[in-house]
Structures are given as C-alpha cells and as structure tokens.
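Propose amino acids for all 410 sites.
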C-alpha cells in the first residue's frame, strides 16, 4: 500500500472523528463558576481577573464556534460568514488572555509592577491590533458562499481571507507556544502545592494540545495551496484537538480548588471517625452520648466531638495515674514501639485505667488533678491508639509487672 493510500485511509477513518463543542463549553463554565466567587471577592487582583477573562473568552469561543451558533450568527446578521471574524476575534482575545495570565503569574511580585504593566500594555496593544486587522481583512475579502465547518480550507487561497486565516493562526500559535513553555517550566519549580502542580500539569497538556489545533489547521490550508485535499484535518482533527485542549485547561483550573476542597472534607471526616473510640470510652464520664445534630456540617460535628472529649478528659484528670503512664511508656518501648507511638499507647492505657478507677471510686473522692496537656492536644493520636485493643492490653500487662513484683517482695 502506497503512502498516498495510507493517507487517504487515515483521512477516511478520521473524517468521523468529531467532539461536540458543548462539552468543553460546559467544563469551562463549571471552572468559571468555581472561580467566580474568588474573582468577585478579590477583583483588584490582576491575576484573578486574567483567569476570569481567560475562562470567559474560552466559553465564548466554544459557544460561538459551534456549527449551530455559526449558522445562527450568519442568519441573524444577514452577512454570509460574518461568524468567521467574530470567532477569530474571540480566539485572538483568548490567546491574549493566556499571555496576560502568564505575565501576571510570572511578574506578580511588587518589585516587578512596572514590568508587568509594560508587558500587559504590549499584549493588549498587539492583540487588539490583530483583532482590528481581522475585521479589515474580512471587509476586503470576497466570501459570498456560507461555510459552516470548513471555511478555512474553502477560502484558503482567497485574497485577504488567506491573510486573515494566517494572521489568527499565527497569533494563536505564538501565545500558545509561550504559555506552554512557561507552564511546563513552572511545573518543575520547587515548593509547589501538590494540587497546584497537578493543575499546572493539566494546563500544560491543554496548551500543548492547542498547538495540535493550529498545526492541523495550517497543514490543511497549506495543502490547499499545493493542490492537495487534507480538509479532514481542518473539519475533524483541529476542532477535536481544540475541544480536548479546552477540557484539559478547564480541569487544570478546577483541580487545585476541587482537590483541596475534597481533601479538606476528607481530613475532617477522617478526624471525626478517628475520635470515635475515645468518645465511646468517655461516655460514662461525660454522662451519656455526645450531642448529635444530623443537619450540622462536618466541621461542626467535629468541633462538638472534640469539645465533648476535652470536657470529659478535664473531668477525668483527677483519676489519671502519672506513675502508671510512665510505666506504660517504658513498657511500650520495651515491646518495640517507637517513642511517639509509645507515648500514645501510654496515654491510652492511663485513660482506660482512669475510667475504671472512676467507676470504683466512692462519691466525693477528692484527688489532685494530673497534667492533661498532652491528652488535650493529642486526642486524635490517643483515640487511634485505643482502636488497637491488643496493643493496649499488652502494654497494660507489661506495665503492671513491676508493681506486682514489688508487692510480692514486700
């Protein structure tokens, strides 16, 4: 099979490849909704404004680049193919927003404010000039036949429209190349938060995929100049690459916020569950079950459980045996536990003993209160230790040996 046949086969297979523009539009809208509260609250922050502009223009590009919207725009205005310069302008504005984002991200320090302002003015001026040129070139071009999906290749050799197509592709490629390089450089920067690094990875993949969009478009246009037909690159590969790229970019903005939010929720719920053994042990001390509010937030339930436990520990402090805690600590070390783990087990053994001692103590039993600083600060670690009853039993048995030996010797 010749290379020509292979190319034709690939083109035939990929002709059916198409991703709806509404998918990235929805994902980008979700990213904008997530970021919008921060953008409105910190509107003076130029970085957040750049993010908002980027997401807004990205949404607009996919809404107005959808074939149905293109046909509607042409029909409403009564001008064949008027949607072309409009979509090109939105894509150019999106490209400018990419550069503005990296400008403010890279030069956001106080000592670079003047440099940031100069770069911002340069980007806005150049890309605003590109938008004006796009409309001038369209006005000069002769494009009477409406093209919904393949305008770039259909008018690839048409005077002025040819220059317009090359201009918007060049503006897009320059912005995308610069942004891709800087994003991948930032990924390698030390000290980045894990979720932010993942967000940057998705952004990097998205911007790199955007280069495929431009390459497919340009290849199809050049093929027309040389008398070849690679229109499937323009009508299928380029739009699909743009949709995939936009989805990755949107995910890149969503991941840091959604990831951190979900992680915080998981940590709160994990801490709440880890305190259950200690809360259950202290029920007899606190006089019944802990207060439960089904409609309370996870944070509020955690606060109530922590308060319930700390109040019970303060009441139990006069029954804590400091000598037992020291023996239990030595016993845990002797059993092979490391120091931190031995301290947690010793505290747990002391609390279990205090609860039992309180149950046997007569009413009005007056004892001096022990130091509960460690217990109050490390209630989660102590509660997790209580979740391993076999280890608690082993430490209690070993800690009781010296006392029994002394008693027998006497």
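Proposal:
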């Amino acid at each position: 099979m010749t290379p020509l046949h292979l190319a034709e086969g690939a083109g035939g297979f990929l002709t059916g490849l198409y991703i709806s523009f509404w998918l990235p539009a929805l994902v980008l809208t979700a990213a904008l909704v997530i970021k919008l509260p921060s953008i409105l609250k910190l509107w003076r922050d130029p970085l957040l404004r750049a993010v908002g502009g980027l997401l807004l223009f990205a949404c607009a590009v996919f809404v107005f680049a959808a074939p149905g919207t293109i046909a509607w725009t042409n029909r409403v205005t009564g001008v064949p193919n008027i949607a072309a310069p409009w979509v090109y302008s939105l894509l150019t504005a999106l490209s400018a927003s990419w550069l503005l984002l990296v400008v403010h991200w890279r030069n956001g320090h106080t000592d670079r404010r003047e440099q940031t302002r100069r770069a911002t003015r340069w980007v806005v001026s150049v890309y605003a000039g590109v938008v004006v040129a796009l409309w001038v070139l369209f006005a000069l071009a002769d494009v009477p036949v409406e093209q919904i999906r393949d305008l770039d290749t259909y008018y690839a050799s048409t005077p002025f429209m040819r220059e317009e197509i090359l201009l918007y592709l060049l503006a897009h490629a320059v912005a995308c190349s610069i942004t891709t390089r800087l994003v991948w450089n930032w990924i390698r920067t030390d000290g980045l938060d894990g979720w932010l690094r993942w967000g940057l990875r998705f952004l990097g993949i998205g911007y790199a995929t955007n280069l495929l969009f431009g390459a497919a478009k340009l290849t199809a246009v050049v093929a027309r100049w040389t008398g070849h037909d690679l229109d499937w690159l323009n009508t299928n590969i380029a739009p699909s690459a743009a949709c995939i790229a936009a989805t990755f970019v949107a995910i890149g903005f969503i991941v840091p916020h959604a990831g951190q939010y979900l992680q915080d929720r998981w940590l709160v719920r994990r801490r709440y569950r880890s305190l259950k053994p200690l809360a259950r042990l202290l029920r007899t001390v606190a006089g019944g079950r802990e207060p439960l509010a089904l409609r309370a937030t996870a944070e509020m339930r955690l606060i109530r459980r922590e308060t319930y436990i700390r109040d019970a520990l303060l009441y139990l402090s006069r029954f804590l045996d400091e000598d037992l805690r020291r023996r239990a600590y030595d016993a845990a070390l002797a059993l092979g536990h490391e120091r931190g783990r031995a301290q947690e087990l010793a505290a747990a053994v002391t609390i279990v003993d205090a609860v039992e001692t309180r149950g046997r103590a007569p009413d009005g039993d007056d004892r001096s209160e022990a130091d509960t600083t460690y217990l109050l600060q490390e209630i989660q670690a102590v509660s997790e230790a209580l979740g391993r009853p076999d280890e608690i039993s082993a430490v209690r048995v070993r800690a009781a040996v010296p006392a029994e030996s002394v008693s027998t010797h006497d």
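The chain has two domains: 13-265, 283-405. The longest helix spans residues 231-274.
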